[in-house]
Amino acid sequence: MNESQVKKIISDCLAGQLSLDEASSQVLGVLKLKDAQVDLDRKDRCGFQEVIYGKSKTIPQVVEILGAMAQRGLDNILVTKASAQMGQVLVEKFAGSYDSAGQIYHYGSYPPAQAQATLLCAGTSDLPIAQECLVTLKAMGVSCNFIKDVGVAGIHRLLNYQDDLARSKVVIVIAGMEGALLSVVGGLVKCPLIGVPTSVGYGASFQGLAALLSMLNSCATGSAVVNIDNGFGAAVLASRILQIH
Fold it and tell me: Residue 31 is inside which H or E element, if any?
């Protein structure tokens, strides 16, 4: 916030157009609510609005946070890991859209796409995390070449897309089970890779830990790995990589 903006806030406060709390919030860039402190300047600092993590929050808490952000004119807001009930309530109160597969809600308008990422999903069971990633990419202004069901159990399916991979500037690989798809793709491309281990798998997969360790120990170079089931985090990283190009 520059000097003229601060002076304007002080002037509005002295004129009674802003309360002391509202003026303080605008100057500090923090809006204090009952159970949260909303970061109003996140987009200026980091390029995107504060994202609301829905899991473990109550529906009234998320409604209050989103409502406060929307009231202040913030747009293009995401609520991740939102239950179906939470998504329904948010759509009813604020409109927007809810992706039930990816458990992600979007408020406002999407920006025009400025770049493209390639998104590989190993199996149909991994699609919910891929959908979270897809919606987040769209909110970040990134279009997506979405390639589904190309896991290593049928490697010939992936090889049909070698031309797509060769043209990619960044590839996101979403895989559960043993997470081997990241290593395979790493041997086919020269662009940055982002691995997303999912919690899909039988008992010894340890809810995604096996895939996470496999991706972290990959012999293929040039890859980074985000947390288990973190399609959102992979999309943000891909967006920042694409901003460099």
Answer: strand 30-32
What is the Cα 30 distance to its own chain's centre? Answer: 22
Question: What is the spatial distance between Cα 70 and Cα 171, in angstroms, rounded to a whole number?
Answer: 33
The length of the chain is 245
Q: Nearest CA to 225 among 217, 238, 235, 216? A: 216
Burial of 7 (0-12, 13-18, 19+ CB in 10 A): exposed
Beta strands 223-225 and 193-197 are parallel
pTM: 0.85
Profile the chain (245 residues) by mean pLDDT over runs of 10 residues: 57 60 59 77 80 93 91 89 95 94 94 92 95 95 94 90 92 94 93 95 93 93 94 95 81
